[in-house]
Design a protein that fits this description.
It is a single chain. By secondary structure, this protein is an alpha/beta fold. Among the domains are: about 5-240, Amidase signature (AS) enzymes (Alpha-Beta Complex), CATH 3.90.1300; about 295-365, no CATH class. It is built from 16 helices and 11 strands. The protein has helices at about 5-15, 20-30, 45-50, 95-100, 145-150, 170-175, 210-220, 235-240, 265-280, 295-310, 325-340, 340-355, 360-385, 405-410, 415-420, 450-465, and strands at about 40, 65-70, 105-110, 160-165, 180, 200-205, 250-255, 280-285, 385-390, 425-435, 435-445. An 11-stranded mixed beta sheet has the order 1-3-2-4-6-5-10-11-9-7-8, with helices on both faces. Helix 9 links the parallel strand 7 (about 250-255) and strand 8. Helix 9 crosses helix 16 (about 450-465) and helix 10 (about 295-310) packs across helix 12 (about 340-355). About 60% of the residues are buried.
């Protein structure tokens, strides 16, 4: 695959006098010719209008950026890859979208996703699955598979997705690109359609670590419009990529090794560990005994929040409205026709977990486990600077292989969910191949530790990229 020019190279070229629309127009042509089903909507007129307003000296001047279909872009469709939001157009810009435009970026289009971000393969989209650029018979991962595949296919150098339990890191691993989940609250959620509000994080993809750092520097920072936003300095994340790892202590998570991991994935992770050691880091095993229960806790907490957040899609306020003879019938028909099977499954699971007589048994227990996992990870990061494990236990799996088995699909996020429950930053960086397909190494850091994550990821990239 021919790669897109790096975001920083585009910005430097535009600052030096290059046509500010050259790269965005090329990306638009590539997106229009896309055969992987990465994009749900493209608007050439909107692209041209953005090009006309570019500041050539901005940090992302002329850089095309793809948006996951759950981020608001005023006047553009925002459908979350769901039939229930067909025809809906955003009434305002998400904070991250406004910051991208202020930085000179050109919003290229809307990317495919699992409906309402519920899935790990982008097969739950109402508009068909996205395909992996490395093997079109396989999944790109999910739920942000359209954004990850667009970067991996060379259509654009950077893209935005959203993370709830691994929805950027997992497709980054399966597509062979970089995916960064920031600290919860580090990036504004204003304008992101909610799945599970206590877990959702807008997260960037990049073709390499430095491009990911550049876009992260633009979108991060306090937003008074988001009550969960953290008021903390961001710093120069791109410069942090040159820090190296000399003197860092990195813990290899014991529970994320051995059984269930494909041999080729283990071999690639061993290469990444060697790269860190060769660069001056010290590695040792650390145990997080509650981490095997993270997925079970997540599968209660996330659907519970989803059932509440998705109650607003009822056929009354906006989106799809079914023909019906009564109010109750309107609700039933609209939601039955508008939501796909996976979204319906999670709404039912979440509603059950919150129902009278079961909330204490399931929801409260899951909250307690999430708190326990957070304490264990925080304690481990008091001893180690970073934690290390695979992003995914497997390489990209064939389309349709897990569609009939929801539990098998949920297990794709087994290594990414702990950091999400703890609200900690984590990154997936390519570290080799297995069976001819990309493998990602995952690093997790302390709260607001994105700079250290990027420095370590840059070391792995330089050795194995």
């Amino acid at each position: 695959m021919k790669g897109a020019p790096r975001a920083r190279a585009i910005a430097e070229a535009v600052a030096g006098g290059e046509d500010p629309g050259r790269y965005a127009r090329a990306a638009l042509r590539a997106a229009q010719a896309d055969t992987l089903n990465c994009f749900l909507h493209l608007d050439p007129d909107a692209v041209e209008a953005q090009i006309a307003g570019i500041n050539p000296q901005a940090p992302l001047a002329g850089v095309p950026v793809a948006l996951k279909d759950n981020l608001m872009d005023a006047g553009q469709p925002c459908g979350c890859a769901s039939r229930i939001l067909e025809g809906y157009r955003a009434s305002y810009d998400a904070t991250v979208v406004a910051r991208l435009r202020d930085a000179g970026a050109v919003i290229l289009g809307r990317t495919n996703m699992d409906e309402f971000a519920m899935g790990s393969s982008t097969e739950n989209s109402a508009y068909g699955p996205t395909r992996n650029p490395h093997d079109p018979t396989r999944t790109p991962g999910g739920s942000s598979g359209g954004s990850g595949a667009a970067v991996a296919a060379g259509i654009c150098p950077v893209a935005l997705g959203s993370e709830t339990g691994g929805s950027v890191r997992q497709p980054a691993s399966l597509c062979g690109v970089v995916g960064l989940k920031p600290t919860y609250g580090r990036v504004s959620r204003r304008g992101l359609v909610a799945f599970a509000s206590s877990l959702d994080v807008v997260s960037p993809f990049g073709v390499d670590v430095r491009d990911t750092a550049r876009i992260m520097s633009v979108i991060a920072g306090f937003d008074p419009g988001d009550p969960t936003s953290l008021d903390a300095p961001v710093g120069n994340l791109e410069a942090a990529c040159d820090r190296g790892v000399a003197g860092l202590k990195i813990g290899i998570i014991q529970e994320c090794t051995g059984e269930g991991i494909e041999p080729g994935v283990s071999a690639a992770l061993a290469d990444a560990a060697r790269a860190l050691t060769d660069a001056g880091a010290s590695l040792a095993t650390v145990s997080l005994p509650s981490s095997p229960f993270a997925l079970a806790a997540y599968c209660v907490l996330a659907p519970a929040e989803a059932s509440s957040n998705l109650a607003r899609f009822d056929g009354i306020r906006y989106g799809r409205r079914a023909e019906a003879e009564s109010l109750a019938d309107l609700y039933v028909r609209t939601r039955s026709e508008g939501f796909g099977p996976e979204v319906q499954r999670r709404i039912l699971l979440g509603t059950f977990a919150l129902s009278a007589g079961y909330a204490d048994r399931y929801y409260a227990t899951a909250q307690g486990m999430a708190a326990r996992i957070t304490r264990e990870m925080t304690a481990a990061l008091g001893e180690f600077d970073l934690l290390f494990c695979p992003t995914s236990p497997t390489v990209a799996f064939p389309l349709g292989a897990r569609a009939a088995d929801p539990l098998a699909m949920y297990l794709a996020d087994i290594f990414t969910v702990p950091a999400s429950l703890a609200g900690l930053p984590a990154i997936s960086v390519p570290c080799g191949r297995a069976l001819g397909l990309p493998v990602g190494a995952q690093l997790t850091g302390p709260k607001l530790g994105e700079a250290t994550l990027l420095a370590a990821a840059a070391v792995i990239e330089a050795a194995l990229g």
